[in-house]
Structures are given as structure tokens and as C-alpha cells.
Amino acid sequence: MANDSAIAIRGVAKSFAGTTVLHDINLEIFDGEFFTMLGPSGSGKTTLLRMVAGFETPDRGTISLHGDDVTQRSAHVRPVNTVFQDYALFPHMDVVTNVEYGLRVAGVKKEDRRRRASEALAMVQLEGFAKRRPAQLSGGQRQRVALARAIVNEPSVLLLDEPLGALDLKLRQEMQTELKVIQRRIGITFLYVTHDQEEAMAMSDRIAIMNAGVIEQVGSPKEIYELPASPFVASFIGTSNVIVRNGRTQSLRPERLRLLLPASSPPEGTITEPATVADVVYLGPVIRVYVRLANGDDLVVVQSNDGLAGPSFSVAAGDAVLVAWRPQDAFDLESELV
After folding, report:
1. pTM
2. Cβ atoms < 10 Å from Cβ of 97
3. Which phi and psi (to 5°) does residue 236 adopt?
4. 292 belongs to a structural domain
């Protein structure tokens, strides 16, 4: 991946009806990167995407695409395309006509636009579907048609606003893999918006975690999961146990904890605290155990169900146990951003 800047956002702020929805956003997205803005509803991620697209204008700050300031430029002249959750395919047109529609509006000759539409369909593996209507396609196929329609115009940046949100879980997981493969194949910068953390972790080169109009952390999926920068990030990404020890707020991931019998000798160098099992949930690949420490803290412990890493004893609600972890697995968290 190149380090050239595809999108540069500098000091961007936005308010609606006196309510600030974005606070001084600074962000750089590299050329060819699959970058995701992840956060809960109301965090400002879609507003920021719409400003990159040109559908909204910042109250202050600048937005540049490949070094070109486009802050005040209209959406239709920016070198970007957007794929929405609602694919908005024309039901009376076949697939290839849907894909080439933007080229027709731009005045591209029929022969050239048909060639480019066919190439775009090949990229999303829909070569044999050109003459079908949208109603004859599955949800995943319609999503790929919308993607082909977006990339046929050869944008320098592709914006995707929760495009998998309308799909069922299994199809959504399949499309996550397909989207990443397509992005690598065509080499276009993807700016993706979602509230689904698994989706973001599965596809992204880097992720920006947004909360209440600010960016709390930017990093790779591994960095954000293993080294959360704030209590919000720790709680939003996966499941995290947040504890306070010796005046320090720390994050403990459930899979880094181990359960021991009360009379056990803990592994050398680990921290152990007595606890009582509150509940045990069997989830197939893993077993989730809810425990309450002697000081009243509630923790979640996740053990693999592979027969190797889990506890060598069965636990049930009410059992006394020890919870053990290595000091290096407890990460200090910064204060919440406001």
C-alpha cells in the first residue's frame, strides 16, 4: 500500500440546528487503503462520509482528495462514487444497463460504455448476469451490481455507507470477504462506514473509532483490539473487562483470563483474584463464563472449546474459582475523551 494521501481531512467541524456533530476532525487516508469509520449511531461517521462525497459542507476545515482541495466543490464533480445500503437499482433495466447508466449520463459512447460495464461486472464476478433484472438477483448479487455501477466510472475513491446492512448474517459475512478481494484487485481507496465491529475488523487496513463527533483512536484492527486507547474503545470493540487497580484503569480481554480451582497453584508470574461463577453460557466454539470478583467487579471469561485451552474442570453458577491473568495482558487506558 502506498503512503500517498488519498483523503486528507483537516480541522473539520459540523453543526446542525445548533448541535455540534463533528468536533475538529483530522484524518489522513492513504492511497489504495481499505479504511473504515466505525462507531455507534450518532457518532458522526456518516456525516463525515457525506462531506467527503460533497453532500454536506463543513462549517470549518478542509477536505482534500489526492492533494486537491474539494471542500467547496459540488458532489458531481468530485472523483468519488458512493455505494449506499439501499442499492437504488433501476428495476426496469437489466444489470448491464444499470451498471453503465452513469456513463450514459456522462455522454460516453455506447460501445465504450458497454465494454467498461462488462469489465466492471467481471471484476465483481457477475459476467453471466448482464441481462437479468434486479428482481431476478439475490441480495448479494444486487450488492455487487451496485458496486460495479460505482467502480465503472473509475473513481479515485469509493465511499461505502453501510452497504451490507440489509443482508442476512451469513451473506453479510461472505460479502465481507468478497469486498476485500475486490478492493485489492482494483486498487481503489475504499472509505467504509459501519457500526458493525466484526465487519470493520474483517475488512479494514485501518479503522477510525468515532464517538460523539470525535475520533477516539485510529489504528489497525490488531492495534485497536489489543491496545485500546480509551474506555470507550475497549468496550466498543469486542468484549472488554475494565477494572481499576492501584488507581489505574485497565482493560482485560476475556480470552486472556483463565479460571483455576481455589486450591490451585497459579502459574508463575500471574495475578489471581478469588471469584464466584455467576453464569456459564455454551456458544459452541467457546464457553463464556460470567464471574464476580470478591471486590464486586463483574468479569467475563471466554475459554476455547477446543479441548486444549479451556479449564480442566467444569464450572457452574455458584462455584468458587480463581481468575488469573498475566500483568502484560492488562492494558492501561487513557481517560475518556469529551
Report:
1. 0.82
2. 17
3. -80, -35
4. yes
315 and 166 fall within a common domain: no
How far apart are the C-alpha atoms of 181 and 198, rounded to whole Å?
Answer: 17
Residue 85 belongs to domain spanning: 5-232
Between CA 275 and CA 311 the distance in angstroms is: 15
The enclosing domain of 307 has a CATH number of 2.40.50.100
Residue 226: what are its φ and ψ, rounded to 5°? Answer: -90, -25
**How would you classify the pairing of strands 286-293 and 60-65?**
unpaired
Structure confidence by residue, pLDDT tens digits, 116-125: 999 888 888 8
What pLDDT does residue 334 have?
Answer: 64
As a whole number of Å, the end-to-end CA separation of the chain is: 33
User: pLDDT below 50 — which residues of the chain?
Assistant: 1-2, 309-310, 335-338
pLDDT of residue 4: 87
3-state secondary structure (DSSP) of residue 125 = coil
β pairing state of 286-293 and 271-282: antiparallel
- The answer on 288 and 206 residing in a single domain is no
Number of structural domains found in the chain: 2
For residue 84, what pLDDT is reported? Answer: 82
pLDDT reported for residue 312: 54
Question: Beta-carbon neighbour count of residue 105 at 10 Å?
Answer: 10
Position 105 in a domain: yes
Percent of the chain with pLDDT over 90: 51
Whether 306 and 171 share a structural domain:
no
Q: What does the alpha-carbon distance between residue 47 and residue 25 come to, in Å, rounded to a whole number?
A: 12
